[in-house]
């Protein structure tokens, strides 16, 4: 949760506008819902321990990177 009174949802929208390919995956381990919008605003995923995966598995799943399109790979 933001302790400075900022709006994490607005920040996520601004980042998405600057970086359209950006996706933020949000791992909810404590039931906090205020920052879940960082995932929904960017097309990311909200992952919870209730999904039957331990924390290590959630971290791996959240970090998964999509394949880089061929036109983006530098020779």
Question: Could you characterize the architecture of this molecule?
Answer:
The protein contains three helices and two strands. It is α+β, with helices and mostly antiparallel strands and 75 residues long. The protein has one domain (8-65). The chain has a two-stranded parallel sheet with strand order 1-2. The mean pLDDT is 78.
Low-confidence spans: none
Order of helices and strands: HEHEH
Largest sheet composition: 2 strands, parallel
Oligomerization: single chain
- Number of E-state strands: 2
Features:
75 residues, 3 helices, 32% helix, alpha+beta
Briefly say what this structure is.
The chain is of the alpha+beta class and 75 residues long. It has helices at residues 8-18, 37-40, 55-63; strands at residues 26-28, 46-48.
List the helices and strands and how they pair.
Elements (H helix, E strand, L loop, with lengths): L7 H11 L7 E3 L8 H4 L5 E3 L6 H9 L12
Parallel strand pairs: 1-2
């Amino acid at each position: 949760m933001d302790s400075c009174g900022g709006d994490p949802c607005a920040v996520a929208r601004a980042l998405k506008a600057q970086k359209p390919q950006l996706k933020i995956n949000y791992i909810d381990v404590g039931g906090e819902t205020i920052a879940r919008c960082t995932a929904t605003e960017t097309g990311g995923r909200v992952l919870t321990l209730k999904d039957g995966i331990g924390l290590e598995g959630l971290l791996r799943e959240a970090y998964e990177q999509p394949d880089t399109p061929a036109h983006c790979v530098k020779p």
